[in-house]
Structure formats: structure tokens, C-alpha cells
Amino acid sequence: MEKTEVLLKNPVRHNRPLLDCLNGFAGDKIPFWFMRQAGRYLPEYRAIRQKEKNFIQLCLNPDLASEITLQPIRRFDMDGAILFSDILIVPHVLGQRVDFIESLGPRLEPIRSLQDLQRLNLDRLADGFNPIYQTVKQTCEGLANSKTMIGFCGGIWTVASYMIEGQSSKNYETIKRLCYLDSPFITALFTILIEASYHYLCGQIKAGCQVIQIFESWAGQMDDHNFKNYILKPTEILINRLKSSHPEIPIIWFPKNASESYLHSGLKLNIQAIGLDSTVNQATSRQLQKDYVVQGYLDPIYLLIDAKTIESATRRIIEPLRLDSKNNSRYIFNLGHGILPNSPVENVEFLVNLLKKL
Ligand code: CP3
């Protein structure tokens, strides 16, 4: 049994391979889960989606959301179950209008000034998040003891970008302008989002989540100066708060397209693992593995191709990472981003069977 220096203070072995790996205990297999493992590539998800056409209502329905969370585990037996919800539940519960429109994605009524912030209300959190905590409870009841329950939220910058731009953005013009002008509105919005995300994560942990992942999907958008000020700093505040109330909970941070910026930033977050996207350079991933468990990073496009191509790409990624430079297991397999809706289920199945053999 190997221990490593990314350890939490007094880690305990839980016989849950994913959680144990994050706590520095070696296992004989590489733990794995996939971002967006519950979703449209699964026929059983599409069947439930037919019954509930409103995506927000689906996220807020504990019976359906816990069933969806468990669907991929039943089929593929991953090591981790990720709560079925969305990063945009936070603005929804705060009081911003959020709609998911088929084939267009999310649409939000933009919030762009101090006055707009009056539409948000932190008092709604306690009641608003309750159905999601109920989903976590119900999911945990249906999970085997060897599985790890993963909770999540979006990174502050990523969620703020949706709230301000009102949709997935091409160039982040509005939020960048506000950041570059050091707008007090940005500081005020970030303060609200840190507060809401902190409460949301604490509630998920109380309900049974054993690991937290923070999705900073649009981290790769900023120069060094602004990356530090508007991405790392709010993340650091959120993480330090969570660590002081829940030191035992490992945190995975997924700074998409920004692991190099992070490596060179000189700042170190109090996280156990870093999620790597598909563009990460192998030397960078090895370097990060000195400080953290690394998670990633098969390009989800491979799942659209065929077994042979999936196998060679998977082996190529795993080989240099399965043991770190001191021969410790500090690696969790995942994709570099979410599974695409047009991924053939048999390709996902092939990948899972391969991972179980490796
Ligand atoms: O990973 C999982 O299986 C857990 C559930 C989960 C969803 N979204 C479900 C979902 C998680 C962890 C997320 C995170 C999320 N949501 C992120 C961060 C990760 C990433 O992908 O970068 C972001 C940026 C969002 C915002 C979001 N939600 C967008 C842009 C969209 C539309 C794009 C799309 O794929 O349709 C969503 C919708 C969404 N979230 C779906 C699912 C299963 C599809 C909804 C449907 O039509 O059924």
C-alpha cells in the first residue's frame, strides 16, 4: 500500500478504488469514469428524456435524476457515479432565467450590471437545491459499496461566463471586457457565485458525495494575468472554504485547455487531482503528476471511430501515466471532455472492457 504526498491529513482506505486512488492508496486496477457518462448516447437516457422534456425539471426530479445517474453504472460498472445535474442549476436556483433549447443549448437572460444582480437571491439556495441533495441520497442508496459518488459544480469563471453572455460564447467579449476593466460588478457576481457554489457543494457532501469535481470548462480563454485574477483566485477562495469545512473530501479540478497556464502560474490550489483535457502535452501531464493525481484524457472523438483505434489511443495515454516517477499509482482514466451524444454504445463498452483488463 503506497501513500503519496498529495494526501489528505489522515486518509482512510475505503475500498472504493476511485476514492482510494485520490487519497493516495494504490489499487491493482486503474480507476475510471467518464465525463457525461449519463446522457444522450444511452437509449435508456433518451427514453427518460422523452418523458421529461424540460431539462431543468429533469435535473430537479430526484427519482428520474438518480435513475439517470445509475444508468451508466448498471451498464458499464464504472468506479464513480457523477450526480446527474448541470452547472447551470446554480444560476437557475439563484433566480436567473435558464432554458435549455433542443439543438441550441443553454439560453440565459443575461446579467450584466450591479442592478441586474438584484434578480439573484441567495435566500433561495436552501430550498432550491433540496431536490438535488435528494437525488444524491437516492443515488447513494442504489450504489454498491465499491463505488464513489462524485458531486460537482462549475468553476466560478465558467458559470459567470454563461450568466453574462447568456449562452455558450464564441469569444467571451462581454465578460472579458468587464474583467479587463476591473468592473465592481464582476467582483460582486463572483462573491455571490462563490457563496452559492460553496453551499451547494456542502449540501452535496452532506447528502453523500465523497469526491467533488469543479468543471472549469472555459479556463483556456485568458492570458496569464487574467487567468490568475479571474480564474485561479476565485477558485482558490472556493476550494479553501470547502477544505476548511470538509478537509476529508478530495477535490478534482478540471481546468479545460489551461493545465499549462496553471503549471506556470506559480499558484498551487489545495486540490488532490487535476482533470486533463485532450490537448494536454504528455510532459505537462507527467509534471503535474508530481503534485497531483492526474485524470484524463482520451479525446472523446475516438469513441466515434472503432475498437482498434480506441485501443491504441487508450494504451498510448495510459502507458506514461499509470505509475508516476516514484512508481505510485496516481492516475484515474477519463476522457478529455464529455462523451458525445453520437458515440456508439458498443464503442463505450469496448473501452470499458479494455480498461478492466489493463
Ligand atoms: O457528466 C455527467 O454525466 C453528469 C451530468 C452533467 C451534465 N452537464 C448533464 C447534461 C455535468 C457534470 C454537466 C456539466 C456541464 N454543463 C458543463 C461542464 C462540463 C463540460 O461539458 O464542459 C457545462 C459547460 C454545462 C453546460 C451545458 N449543459 C451545455 C453547454 C449543455 C448543452 C450542450 C449539450 O450537450 O446539449 C448542457 C446540457 C446537458 N447537460 C445535457 C446533459 C446530459 C444534454 C441535455 C439533453 O438534451 O438531454
> What is the CATH architecture annotation?
Alpha-Beta Barrel
CATH domain fold name:
TIM Barrel
Give a count of the beta strands, DSSP E runs of length 2 or more.
Answer: 9
Q: List the ions, cofactors and other small molecules found in this model.
A: coproporphyrinogen III
Order of strands side by side in the largest beta sheet?
A: 1-4-5-6-7-8-9
Low-confidence stretches: 1-6
Straight-line distance between termini: 19 Å
Number of domains: 1
Arithmetic mean of pLDDT: 95
Q: Tell me the name of the CATH class.
A: Alpha Beta
| Sheet/helix structural class | alpha/beta
Query: How would you sum up the global shape?
Result: globular
The main sheet comes to: 7 strands, parallel
Percent of residues in beta strands: 5-15%
Number of helices: 15
For this entry, give a set of tags:
single chain; 358 residues; alpha/beta; TIM Barrel; seven-stranded parallel β-sheet; two-stranded antiparallel ribbon; 15 helices; disordered N terminus; binds coproporphyrinogen III
Task: Write structural notes for this entry.
Residues 1-6 have low confidence and may be disordered. The chain has 15 helices and nine strands. The strands form two sheets. The chain has a seven-stranded parallel beta sheet. The chain has a two-stranded antiparallel sheet with strand order 2-3. With 358 residues, it is α/β, with parallel strands linked by helices. The chain has a single domain (17-357), classed as TIM Barrel (Alpha-Beta Barrel). β6 (251-255), α12 (259-263) and β7 form a beta-alpha-beta unit. The protein binds coproporphyrinogen III.
